[in-house]
Amino acid sequence: MVIVEEDAALEPPIQAKRACPACCCFSYRVPTLRELYSQDKRLLRAILLIVVLLNAPVGKYVLYPFMIFSTWIHELFHGLAALTVGGSITWLNIYPDGSGLAYTVIPVGVFQRAWVASAGYQSTAIIGGISLMFRRTNVGARIGTCGIGMLMLFTCILFVRNAFGLAMLVLMGLGLVVAGWYLPPFWIGELYALIAATTCLNAITSVRVLFFVTESNIGGVASTSDAMTMQNITKIHYYVWASIWMALALWMTTMGIFVNFETQQKQQSNDAVIEGFQDDRHPLTMTEMT
After folding, report:
1. pTM of the predicted model, to two decimals?
2. If you write DSSP's letter for every residue of 27-83 in order, what string do you get?
3. pLDDT value of residue 96
């Protein structure tokens, strides 16, 4: 149940629940600003911190593991896109400055090139947004965190070929697996939400690269940016592609925050907290909506 004030200026939250065998319920919410901040204030602050620091020349090193993770997941989706069109991944390397490169071999064709070039930003936005929806499920957060850690280790075995990438990703992968297995429910939920948000915000945390970097030398290999590659393929200006990817990241982040899955136990806990705020001395009349 949700408790709202009768004289609230905004519309009351819309909520739909459906029980499932795994003791989860689907909850679609359009919360008031007060509710949104109350329930997700740590996540909202973390998102703001990630966006600001990862776009700052020095600030990104404050969140160094998240920068490395953001690069890894971006390059991984380039590689996975190549596999879906019948190509292969030759290697996937991550470098100390936070840059990375997935070297792929794909069949000749305009669609194949465009699909692989656009996969980095569009896939991180979509998968990150969907992952963010499961941040309030204990099982989802544990499986997600452990799964990402094992995927990181798997890519190290198959694709990563430079020393720094291997060392960093193995440490991070093992750390995520251990964290996903042993952390208490609250902290694993917080960690998982940060990982999902970092994935979803990949385009937004790469604003400088998206709009102002068209060519670069990564690990001794000269390459064009994803947006510039799309311009070369489609003849549509790279600013348009950069803007589309950024808009998609914003949209999926918003959807990930507003739409969420919750376990019944956690939903009942949230209801209890909300009910705890009721007080006969409160000057506003309270209405109960089920």
Report:
1. 0.79
2. EE----HHHHHHHHHHHHHHHHHHHHHHTSTTGGGTTHHHHHHHHHHHHHHHHHHHH
3. 94
